[in-house]
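Per your request, structure below.
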């Protein structure tokens, strides 16, 4: 992905009205910074299973958004 693609992806995640702050954190840091579930859990003060649930729900929300999927 190009730098512009990454910037557009970050903006779409950050601006998405149906994603919580924790979900945005998990998606952006997990995929762009390649942080693992343990790192994310420690940073958020949550368990690893909770991080996985946040990612799952966030991806489900994005997949159900036609605008996001069109990009």
């Amino acid at each position: 992905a190009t730098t512009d693609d990454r910037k557009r992806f970050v903006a779409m995640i950050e601006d998405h009205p149906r994603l919580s702050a924790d979900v945005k954190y998990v998606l952006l840091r997990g995929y762009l910074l390649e942080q693992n579930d343990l790192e994310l859990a420690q940073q958020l003060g949550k368990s690893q299973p909770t991080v996985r649930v946040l990612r799952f729900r966030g991806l489900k929300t994005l997949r159900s958004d036609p605008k996001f999927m069109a990009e």
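The first helix runs from residue 3 to 15.

Regards,
D.
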